[in-house]
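Recall the central idea of this unit: under ordinary conditions, the amino acid sequence of a chain determines the structure it adopts. In this exercise we apply that idea directly, starting from the sequence alone.
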Amino acid sequence: MPAKEQDVTISIKAKLYPDQNTIEKFKKLTTAYSEAATWLSDLMFNDFSSPEMITDCRTLHDKYYYDIRQKKDMKSQLAESLIRSVSAKYKAIDTSFKKQYYTYTDADGKLDIGDSSYFLKKT
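Accordingly, the structure predicted from this sequence is:
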């Protein structure tokens, strides 16, 4: 009877000692990514046509991908990562807002209890 084969996984930890040029390039890249994420987030917040759009990566890709590539001079994988990352942040915020309920008094003085999805709807 043959022995069962087992998969073996080997993990390696490595320390990298980059030179000063590599460190500067990495800092420049991370700063550019952060600025582009802020820029995209601002566009999405001020320009979304529906709350569902901000969590739909395909729609965001179609709408913003080429702007990110051209205006922010990002490579393809970084542009894709940026869209997924910002969309995920908005999705997390949307989910946590939907779990919270708010009370407010309307113009007639009546107390109303509503959920935060009201705030994400464009009026």
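Helices lie at 20-47, 57-71, 76-99, 117-120.
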